[in-house]
Request: fold
Amino acid sequence: MARDVEVLSGRARASRGVLHAYSALIYLFLFAPIVLLVLFSFNANRYGTFPITGWTLKWYRQVFSDYQIHDALATTLKVAAEVTVISTIVGTAAAFPLVRSRLPFRDGVRIFFILPIMIPGLLIGVSLLVLFTSTFHRQLSPQTAVIGQSVYTTPFVILLVAARLQGFDTALERAASDLGANAYQRLRRVVLPLLLPAIVAGALFAFTLSLDEFIITYFLIGGHNTLPIYIYTQVKFGITPEVNALASMLLIGSLLLLALAFALPQAVRAGRRALARAAA
Reply:
């Protein structure tokens, strides 16, 4: 019996070791290219590859001095801001009937609303391109890119706000009604403040997705450039240190926004618990 247990323990340890090694290889495969991208952005080698001949911030300075990058950045931020506003308003408004209404086939309607998440961006871009150019005869511009990106980002806001609404305590609204609050006052003073972390998180998600969106934007923005499109056009002529630096900055900005989107609801909940303890 002791020998059998020892054999099983040895096999278990070997299996765990293999699984740990396999997991390490998966993470290495996923994150090694990103680490190399950031590493090469500080490489003094003008070709942006190995060998590393020294460390420099020259490529970041060139990024800040390039007027084409400035124009692309301005267009990217403008489109992302408009997409964020549209997605946040539409997504928040759409979450209420999806959660609280008694519509027949409500689950099917919910799937329909979040369908753009599951549709490839290529299909969204091509279909909207045909709609704008062949049906509406509209010239492609940053505004058409805003519409296309909003179709893709709004379902993420719907999911976040709807998830918060499902856990919402409706007794708070009934208590507000007992105290004389009308529907508008309940929405403004009770519902929206409690939904604010989810709304802000959805807005940050929409902004981040718009900032990095390439496929839909490529089909719909016409002759304008965003940062992802600018990077794509530069990569066609070879990966340069400036591209590595610009991509690293985009990566850091996206990670900071996503971290803020995850941390904000937790910080708000922690603040409320602290206030509740102080009041008690």
Remarks:
- The chain has a mean pLDDT of 82.
- The CA atoms of residues 173 and 197 lie 18 Å apart.
